[in-house]
Write a structure and sequence with these properties.
The chain is α/β, with parallel strands linked by helices and 576 residues long. The chain has 22 helices and 21 strands. Bound molecules: ligand C2E and magnesium ion (2 copies).
């Protein structure tokens, strides 16, 4: 806008304009301009009267040519007149331009956001004789600004208020709860195994799921509450004016909301969520500590099993410290020589011999003692440490295989577990190949175990598996039967072995369903020409069952627990 800063016009300057030029200037500058322009004369009594209106200005507030010479109060509704009178008076007082924004109804009845600038015009004595008012439609700018504000406080994917919004709203909610002496609950909600879902189904499906989850979370109950997307697969709910019992009910409703499957591209998926709850004022007196403590409770909920809710308590603090201790320790575990590989023999049921072993990682923490892989592998996955740990395992096993060959122990094969993250690592195949070459191994003596979850992206899985097969290593599907994979899909992949998950083996003698599942898997493997191993075989009758069913190998405590290398060499390699 062409701001007219303290323009001083002298009387004789007006007269110097010839009428024609004046008309042209008016035509060009004032009439065609889209701004609303008014020139007001400052009356001796302190009022303001119209001396000029451009075309745009005429339509506004029923102003017409007849309004010329009349005061604000003679022309405008009282409220508008008072409002403008105040602004004009402020120009008189400050002796400088004043700007303000308000809602303006235009000639064509459109209601817009207007920004007005009132500029004083001084005479020779320095008195203000006229005030020029220019009003511009800034609706587009306001809309942009509103949009920007909206975007700053909302998550574009789910449309839910975001983390910045949470900070603001939570502080307000805490303040209100404090003033009204009420309890407030903060729930930290995290989807179970979302990472797995995202890795296996792809990010587009992941996004759809998050959106659907957002919708489900906002339609839990009638009670007023607010849902935020904290980031990733984390959501936060603020439940004002509540109690421990009421928030517990709410958490149960959240869990229940996940009982129905999510439909994505005509497929149904079951996803559950875990919830950590902190209550104001018991578990924290400000927003940050409520979030932190709900997060701690969430961790605990996840540890205890999924699809659970858990309230914060002081004891939880200690347990979280334990997890952090593990993470810090794990970072140094390789260089401090705390990792060791145990080997579990696999018994070949047709020969009653052991020629293959599964390599299973063991961690001896200097303070915590033995830490189970079930506990630290997920941490290694989450932190990415699994890549260096995984590489260490492959290196170590390959060196051992070379050593055993040199000692003349006969043919031995070892299977190594690959985590989903490792499997996605682009350098994986090259790294494996280098290790095989360096140790001059027969590639077939290495088998890699993958869970179904690691192989859900069909194109990528096929590519990587094909490359692995090119090198000549074997591939097995670990924990078979627990993932999402369809049988037809398995058929298309270059797989050598299926490992029946322990959960089916455990009750195979008591539970007909488990017996049916295991038998089906064995038949499937046979018809596809795959070898099949039953995991977690603990009693002799199970061995008999699998022998009769035609299963190739069994692995489990009945025969042997995973054992250290020297023991394995002593028992199984030396005497061959
Ligand atoms: P998994 O690959 O399914 O390994 C089999 C697990 O079952 C091992 O647990 C083994 O000790 C246990 N097991 C064997 N026989 C029996 C039995 O008769 N009864 C019962 N109840 N359990 C039996 P472990 O060694 O604690 O490993 C647990 C999981 O940790 C493994 O499951 C695997 O997913 C992961 N893991 C272990 N080592 C590695 C590794 O080097 N890399 C990766 N990525 N994951 C590993
Ligand atoms: Mg395994
Ligand atoms: Mg397994």
């Amino acid at each position: 806008m062409n701001r007219m800063n303290n323009v001083i016009l002298k009387d004789d300057q007006f007269s110097r304009f010839d009428e024609k030029i004046e008309a042209i200037i008016f035509e060009i500058i004032l009439k065609h301009i889209k701004d609303l322009i008014y020139v007001m004369k400052v009356e001796d009594n302190g009022g303001f009267s119209y001396v000029f209106l451009n075309e745009e200005a005429k339509g506004h507030a029923k102003l017409t040519d007849d309004s010329i010479g009349k005061t604000l109060h003679e022309v405008l509704p009282l409220e508008t007149a008072n409002h403008l009178d105040e602004q004009y008076k402020s120009v008189m007082e400050k002796k400088e331009p004043v700007s303000f924004q308000d809602v303006v109804i235009l000639a064509d009845k459109r209601i817009v956001h207007g920004e007005s600038i009132l500029t004083p015009i001084f005479d020779d004595n320095g008195d203000i004789t006229f005030i020029v008012s220019v009003t511009r439609d800034i609706s587009a700018r306001v809309a942009d600004k509103e949009m920007i504000t909206y975007m700053a406080y909302h998550d574009p994917l789910t449309g839910l208020p975001n983390r910045s919004s949470l900070k603001k709203d939570l502080d307000n909610a805490v303040e209100k709860a404090e003033m009204t002496n009420q309890n407030l609950a903060l729930m930290f909600i995290d989807l179970d195994r979302f990472k797995f879902f995202n890795d296996s189904m792809g990010h587009v499906a992941g996004d759809h799921l998050l959106k659907a989850v957002g919708e489900r979370l906002t339609s839990i109950s009638e009670k007023s509450y607010k849902v935020f997307r904290q980031g990733g697969d984390e959501f936060i709910v603020i439940l004002p004016n509540t109690s421990r019992e009421l928030s517990e009910q709410f958490a149960q409703n959240v869990n229940r909301a996940f009982e129905k499957p999510f439909r994505l591209e005509a497929k149904e998926f079951f996803i559950s969520a875990s919830i950590g709850i902190s209550i104001f004022p018991t578990d924290g007196s400000d927003g940050d500590s409520l979030i932190k403590n709900a997060d701690t409770a969430l961790y605990r909920a996840k540890e205890l099993g999924r699809s659970l809710y858990q309230f914060y308590s002081f004891d939880l603090q200690k347990q979280t410290t334990h997890l952090m201790q593990l993470e810090t320790g794990l970072r140094k575990a390789i260089e401090k020589n705390e990792l060791e590989i145990y080997y579990q023999p696999q018994l070949d049921l047709s020969t009653d011999k052991v020629t293959s072993f599964e390599a299973l990682l063991r961690w001896k923490h200097p303070v915590l003692g033995f830490v189970s892989p079930v506990e630290f592998i997920p941490i290694a996955e989450e932190t990415g440490l699994i890549l260096s740990i995984g590489e260490w395992i492959i290196q170590t096993v390959c060196r051992k295989l070379k050593q055993w060959k040199e000692y003349g122990y006969g043919s031995v094969s070892v299977s190594i577990n690959l985590s989903p993250k490792q499997f996605q690592q682009p350098e994986l195949v090259t790294m494996i190949q280098q290790n095989i070459e360096e140790n001059q191994l027969y590639p077939g003596c290495l088998e890699f175990e993958l869970t179904e979850g690691a192989m859900q992206d069909p194109k990528r899985t096929l590519q990587t598996l094909a490359k692995l097969k090119e090198i000549g290593v074997r591939i097995s599907v670990d924990d078979f039967g627990t993932g999402y994979s369809s049988l037809s899909y398995i058929k298309k992949l270059p797989i050598d072995t299926l490992k029946i998950d322990q959960s089916f083996v455990k009750d195979v003698l008591r539970d007909e369903k488990d017996a049916a599942i295991t038998t089906t898997i064995i038949h499937l493997a046979q018809s596809l020409g795959l070898s099949v191993i039953a995991e977690g075989v603990e009693v002799e009758q199970q061995v008999e069952f699998f022998k009769i069913m035609g299963c190739h190998k069994v692995q489990g405590y009945f025969f042997s627990k995973p054992i250290p290398e020297d023991e394995m060499v002593e028992h199984y390699l030396k005497n061959k």
